[in-house]
Amino acid sequence: MDELPIGRRVSYWRNRRKMSQQVFADRLGKSKSWVDKVERGVRRLDKFSVVYEIADVLQLDVQLLLGKDPERRPDSMNCIDQIEVAEIRSALERYDQISAFFYAAPEPPPIAEMRKAALHAWQTWEHGRYGVLARALPKLLRDAQAADTAYAHSDDSREAAHLLGQVYQLASSVLRKLGELDLSWLAADRSIAVSQRAGDQLLAGVATTRVANALRALGRHRAALEVNVNIANRLCPTPGETADDQLSVYGFLLLQGAMAASCIGDSATMRDLLTAAQDAAAGLGGDKNHYWTSFGPTNVLVHRAAAAVELGEGGLAIAIHDGLDPAAFNAMLPERRAHHYLDMARGFAQVGDVERAGEMLLEGDLLAPAEIRCRPIAHEVLSDVLRRTRGTPTAALAELAEQMGVGV
């Protein structure tokens, strides 16, 4: 894209925004012929004022039109814009199984292709590339919905439903990270229903944590606690007969329940749930990633630190952080580690160590930039760190603040 002429870049973004040349021209106050000539390179765009007008109509960073690195500007991560939110919402509002009674269902991709697409999406999520995943979600949702409808009465019906359940979970998780909480809740709720239809209680269990996380982000901590604990009790393992995947999902539910308990200040319930999760992790015998839970002894410790931060006990969180086994922690996925660094930035800020808090934000940014640059809470933490920093912040922190568009 950076090497294309500006007219080609205009054409690319206009098509991505699903605007015809006529609609685009009308919004600019230009003729369709003028737009066509610009996109073909016949007419030059030599006025910055016009380029800025085009960027405004297309709702994107003007640097993208100029072929420059957008990461050098505030809002640089281009995490997600309202056009993309609208496309995701539109995909979530589809009811292909109902429509199939009245119209021919859209042609679905092959199951093998959907399987690869879902795997790639999970890897994108686990590496914290939220903007990339958000932009892929509309098509991924439509394809998974079409496959679920088309294969509903075939031997592939359960796998198609399973894949759609996964995609809904991915949508819920990334939308929550990016602050689109109502859509996150909707996607998670859809995932529970589809997972049950797929006949996979563990997938439904993980979907429950997505619902609970959306509820927690919306401030409904008590409801989030009850949802997690209720489903964890149903999946409670039988001693000596538990598979690793069931133990992982069970433990993951307990961890999310502990986080919800910490948010309402229920330290007793939080400790009980963390202890039960620790026992489950011990039974697992190591750090695993069954059903994308990243569950194991290290993740339990990471959640202990996060829960302490929620209770305002930054000193305890720091002690847990300092006691983490470096090899085990570094083996965790980038998203999980960057999330922990964000939690620890809050923990260090709580004890007044804003220098270490800034270092945690920078560590997270190196691992998974979107976890720091795209999350509203990270912007709040960075603003707090800058406000409380005596003198001039480090060059690295000042640069990160400039790129994120964060001020005191």
- What summary fits the major beta sheet? none
What do the pLDDT scores average to? 89
Taking the alpha carbons of the first and last residues, their distance comes to: 34 Å
Sum up the overall morphology in one term: flat
Q: Rg, please?
A: 23 Å
**Poorly predicted residue ranges:** 69-76, 98-103
Into which percentage range does the β-strand content fall? under 5%
Q: What series of H and E elements makes up the topology? A: HHHHHHHHHHHHHHHHHHHHHHH
Put simply, the count of helices is 23
Counting DSSP E segments of at least 2 residues, the number of strands comes to 0
Q: Roughly how much helix do the residues carry, as a percent range?
A: over 70%
Structural class: mainly alpha
InterPro entries: Cro/C1-type_HTH, Lambda_DNA-bd_dom_sf
Pfam family, one: HTH_31
Organism: Catellatospora aurea
Protein name: Helix-turn-helix domain-containing protein
Describe this structure in words.
Residues 69-76 and 98-103 have low confidence and may be disordered. The relative contact order is 0.07. Helices cover 71% and strands 0% of the residues. The protein contains 23 helices and no strands. Helix 9 packs antiparallel against helix 10 (157-177) and helix 15 (267-284) packs antiparallel against helix 16. It is flat, with a radius of gyration of 23 Å. With 408 residues, it is mainly alpha-helical.
